[in-house]
Amino acid sequence: MKIISMDVMSTGVIAYYVLIASRNGLFTPIVSNAKNVRYADPVPQAVILTAIVIGFSIQALMLVGVMKLARDNPTLESNEIEKNNTP
């Protein structure tokens, strides 16, 4: 459940950032012959793409950790899992 919560939180942050960074009337920064055209800043787009990739990799890493815990401890009791994994 915590993994799904982390994914929902990450999606919410990315959606909020896209909502704040978007502007109407801006074009993609492609070189053309048009003059006096306002171009969009590509940095927020790159930041969002990076955040999506990092979020996906963190989610995959958490799933691997949960799979290892589930294989080593065939129980749903968190107290028992903590007791079995203390050094």
Automatic annotation (TrEMBL):
Topology within the bilayer: Multi-pass membrane protein
Compartment(s) where it occurs, according to its Swiss-Prot or TrEMBL record: Cell membrane
GO CC list: plasma membrane
InterPro entries in the cross-refs: CPA3_antiporter_subunitC, NUOK/Mnh_C1-like
Transmembrane parts of this sequence: 12-31, 43-66
Keywords recorded for this protein, A-Z: Cell membrane, Membrane, Transmembrane, Transmembrane helix
NCBIfam families hit by this protein: PRK07375.1-5
The family this protein is said to belong to: Belongs to the CPA3 antiporters (TC 2.A.63) subunit C family.
PANTHER family: ANTIPORTER SUBUNIT MNHC2-RELATED
Identification of the protein by name: Putative monovalent cation/H+ antiporter subunit C
